[in-house]
Specification:
It is a single chain. It is built from eight helices and nine strands. By secondary structure, it is of the alpha/beta class.
Length: 230
């Protein structure tokens, strides 16, 4: 069964990456929640997509106590997602102002997962392969997936690289997924969770292609489409 992954929670109906959005995702039929983790000025693992708040303040320059109440930490987010699986995306890209070359952010995420004994309930994804590798090194029992767009060579080469490093899935941009992409992923033994898909017809196409998960801002729509395709 294709899984419904609520992108930053039920983000079309509630503020993204908030406890409200995560709890609403459950009500709207999501199987999984996808959320974003960034580093702060202390050990707080902040749930936020962009490196800066709406007022321009950089999250990396703020402690947990200085963050707005609307920005939960990873522990609070996981509490809000109880009963669902969680895709934790680590935001750590070299071009971002909060890039962490030490990869300590990855270790902080692993430690929180281990503290909760939640290894079977999460999947960690990232665009930065070295960050993802660090998660695997720290705890090989945590499932990991590479996020990516079109900026790679052949899909077969990419899939082979990801599989060789022990990661279990690819998380591609929707526009690049076709039967050739799926063949490369399957030949490497990888799952495929696609982002970000809100169009019903495209959801049906992806189901027909055999994807494992659809990351969407409208989990209720995806739930209806997938239940109808069952």
């Amino acid at each position: 069964m294709v899984r419904v992954i609520a992108h930053r929670g039920a983000s079309a109906a509630a503020p993204e990456n908030t406890v409200e959005a995560f709890e609403l995702a459950r009500e709207l039929g999501a199987d999984w929640v996808e959320l974003d983790v960034r580093r702060s000025a202390d050990t707080t693992l902040a749930i936020h997509h962009d490196p800066v708040l709406a007022d321009g303040r950089a999250i990396v320059g703020m402690t947990g106590g200085e963050l707005p109440e609307s920005v939960p930490d990873l522990a609070a987010a996981l509490d809000a997602c109880a009963g669902m699986k969680v895709n934790i995306e680590i935001k750590n890209w070299p071009e971002d102002p909060d890039f962490d070359p030490s990869l300590a952010l990855a270790l902080g995420v692993v430690e929180e997962i281990q503290r909760r004994g939640a290894q079977d309930d999460v999947l960690v994804s990232c665009f930065h392969l070295s960050t993802l590798d660090r998660v695997r090194e720290a705890d090989p029992t945590i499932a990991t997936a590479l996020l990516h767009g079109p900026r790679y060579g052949t899909w077969a080469d990419l899939a082979s690289l990801v599989a060789e490093r022990g990661h279990c899935a690819l998380h591609p941009w929707d526009h690049i997924v076709d039967r050739w992409y799926m063949r490369a992923a399957r030949d490497a033994g990888l799952e495929v969770n696609v982002w970000t898909v809100d169009n019903e017809d495209r959801m049906r196409e992806l189901v027909a292609l055999g994807v494992d998960g659809i990351c969407t801002n409208v989990p209720d729509v995806a739930r209806s489409v997938l239940d109808g395709a069952a």
